[in-house]
Specification:
Order of helices and strands: EEHEHHHEEHEEHHEHEHHHH
Radius of gyration: 20 Å
CATH topology of the largest domain: 2-enoyl-CoA Hydratase, Chain A, domain 1
CATH class of the largest domain: Alpha Beta
């Protein structure tokens, strides 16, 4: 079996491609979670990376959990405690790593994003969909619950009412329906998907890397903290930002009416 994640570096942009189309880029029953965790740690430690694009090889973005692999849960007579620990030490490591990554992440959704595959898109900051993409929070269809944090992630993207509808019915949305409910920010022709993701990434990476990471952290903290706590954190980050050479260069460039030249 091939390595799950293929990485390509394009300047300050890192492209991660889920590269097991033979399994429809399933996230379980393989090394996917461990590779994502390792990739996120490497990205965190590399200040030259200022944006990540996540996509899938083949016609499917990700089918989520490997349903065939789930048969071992009843064939092997595993205990509930054992299964619970497998989730804690397995798929649940993925949202902790990817959702909490400080670098902006664009999901370029090339096809169906199903179950944990849909939740994977919600761990990203921005979502661009091919016109061939579909989306389903389909756990209920196979008699299980969202075990990867989907019940926390999806409502924060589409709101509790739409998330409830998707989770209780398990039915799929088209790309246009996903656009209408805010699950994705744009729908593009399938053949232009990566080009559009690269264009968006290019608009991001021209900005100072340290400020991008602090801005993302503020956005993440703003989802779960009080206004007072976020203002305090913002003041601390702003104090750091004001002391950076990139801020000094940006102000000088504005005053001198020229394009800034950041250190990167």
């Amino acid at each position: 079996m091939t390595q799950f994640l293929k990485t390509e570096r394009e300047g300050a942009v890192l492209i991660l491609t889920m590269n097991q189309p033979e399994t429809r880029n399933a996230l379980t029953g393989n090394t996917a979670v461990q590779e994502f965790v390792q990739a996120c740690e490497a990205i965190r430690l590399d200040p030259a990376i200022r944006c990540v694009i996540l996509t899938g090889a083949g016609p499917v973005f990700s089918s989520g959990g490997n349903v065939k692999d789930m048969q071992r849960f009843f064939n092997e007579q595993l205990s509930p405690d054992t299964i619970r620990e497998e989730y804690r030490n397995g798929i649940q490591r993925l949202p902790k790593a990817l959702y909490n990554l400080d670098v902006p992440v664009i999901a370029a959704i090339n096809g169906p994003a199903i179950g944990a595959g849909l939740d994977l898109t919600c761990m990203c900051d921005m979502r661009i969909a091919s016109d061939k993409a579909t989306f389903a929070e389909s756990f209920v269809k196979v008699g299980i619950v969202p075990g990867d944090g989907g019940a926390w992630l999806l409502p924060r993207v589409v709101g509790i009412s739409k998330a409830s509808e998707m989770a209780f019915t398990g039915e799929a949305l088209t790309a246009q329906e996903a656009l209408a409910c805010g699950l994705v920010s744009r729908v593009v022709a399938h053949d232009t998907l990566l080009d559009e993701a690269r264009k968006l990434a290019a608009k991001i990476v021209v900005n100072p890397g340290g400020v991008l990471r602090m801005t993302k952290r503020l956005l993440r903290e703003g989802e779960r903290s009080s206004l007072e706590s976020l203002l305090e954190l913002s003041a601390g980050y702003q104090a750091i930002a004001h002391m950076t050479p990139d801020h000094h260069e940006a102000v000088r460039a504005f005053v001198e009416k020229r394009a800034p030249k950041f250190s990167h």
